[in-house]
Amino acid sequence: MTEFWSWWIIVIVAIMIVGSFVILHLTRKMEDNGEDTTGHVYDGIEEYNNPLPKWWLNMFYITLVFSIGYLVLYPGLGNYEGYFNWTQENAWEKEVAAAEEQYGPIFAQYLNTPIPSLGSNQEAMDMGKRIFLNYCAACHGSFATGTPGYPNLMDDDWLYGGSPETIKTTLINGRQGMMPGFGEQLNEEQITFVTSYVTSLSGRDAPEKEVAEGKELYQMNCVACHGADGKGNQQLGAPNLTDSTWLYGGSRKVIARTIRNGRQGNMPAHQEILGDAKLHLVAAWVYNTSKEQSKQ
Q1: pTM of the predicted model, to two decimals?
Q2: Does residue 92 sit within a domain?
Q3: Residue 209 burial by Cβ neighbours in a 10 Å radius (0-12, 13-18, 19+)
Q4: Alpha carbons 55 and 47: distance in angstroms, whole number
Q5: What's residue 270's pLDDT?
Q6: 160 and 189 in one domain?
Q7: Are 64 and 100 in contact (CB under 8 A)?
Q8: What is the pLDDT of residues 61-103, one digit of tens each?
Q9: Is 275 found in the same domain as 170?
Q10: Of 37, 57, 73, which marks where a domain is finished?
C-alpha cells in the first residue's frame, strides 16, 4: 500500500492502544466502599458503582501489552513486516513444501507406470479418484459424468480424443474451446433451418424443407470445423453432431442458441496445480474408469 495509507493505519492503531490504556487508567477505582451507586434503579434494585476485580482489570492490561508485542513481531502496522517477517504466502509455501516432502514420494512411485497398467492397481486408482474429487469434481461432478458445458468423462465420446496421452495433454495445458456465433451472418429463419439439419444428423425428425435449406447453410458455414458428415474434428475440439452426446444440451432451443450466440469453453491448465505425479494419477483414473464405464 502507499505510504499515506500505511501511516494512516499505524496512527489509528497507536491511538487505539494508547487510548485504551488511558481509559483503563482513568476509569479504574482503587477503593470499594460498598455504598457508591450509579443512580440507576430498576424494580427497587440499585446499580452499584464498584471497581472491576483486580484480576479482570489486569487481564485488560495484559491484553494491551500482548497486542503491542504481537504488532512488533508480526505484520499489522501498515507496511511494517514485523520482526519475524511473517506472511501468509510464506506460511503456505512452507506447508506445501512439508506436505510435498512427506507425500510426494507416495505419488511419484507411480509416475513411470503406463496409464493403462495403473487400472489394475487399486491403490493408485483410489489416489487418482481422491485427487479428482479435490480438483476436478467442481466442474465435472463427483462421478465425472459432467454437467451442461462440462464434458462427461465416463463415456467414450471425447472432444479432443480419449487416449492416455491426449488426456494428459488436456490436464497439462488445459483447453480453450470456441465456437463463433452466427447471429450476425444468419437471420432467425436461417438459424431454424440449420437447427433442423443439425438435429437430423443425429437421426431425429425435422421438416424436410428446413433440413434441405439447413444443409446448404451448414455446408457454407459449419463444414470447416464439424466436417461434411458432421462427425466433428478432435484436433479442433469440434463435437460430433451425429450422436446423442451434447455438451450444452441437444434440444432444438439449445442448438439454436448455440448457433446464434456461439460457445466459449475453458478448462484451466493443471500442470502447476498438480505437478507431474498427481496429474499422472488423475489421468490414469479418468482413462481406466471411463473404459470400465463404457463397457457397461
Answers
A1: 0.74
A2: no
A3: exposed
A4: 21
A5: 97
A6: no
A7: no
A8: 999 999 999 999 999 999 999 999 999 999 999 999 999 999 9
A9: yes
A10: 73
Mark residue 141 as left, alpha or beta (left: phi above 0; alpha: psi -120 to 50; beta: remaining). left
Quote the CA–CA distance of 112 and 251 in Å, as a whole number.
44
**CATH code of the domain in which 149 resides:** 1.10.760.10
- Residue 80 falls in which region: left (phi positive, over 0), alpha (psi -120 to 50) or beta: beta
Report residue 68 as a C-alpha cell: 503491542
- Give the chain's count of helices (H) and strands (E): 11, 4
The verdict on 235 and 275 lying in the same domain is no
pLDDT tens digits, one per residue of 151-183: 999 998 999 999 999 999 999 999 999 999 999
Domain residues for the domain of 219 are: 178-266
Find the radius of gyration of the CA atoms of the chain: 33
Question: Count of CB atoms within 10 A of residue 113's CB?
Answer: 14
Is residue 42 helix, strand or coil? Answer: strand
**Would you state the cell numbers that stand for residue 117, as one nine-digit string?**
497398467
Give pLDDT < 70 ranges for the chain. 29-34, 296
Same domain, 50 and 40: yes
- Would you say the C-alpha torsion 188, 189, 190, 191 has a positive or negative sign? positive
Q: Which of 55, 73, 91 is the last residue of a domain?
A: 73
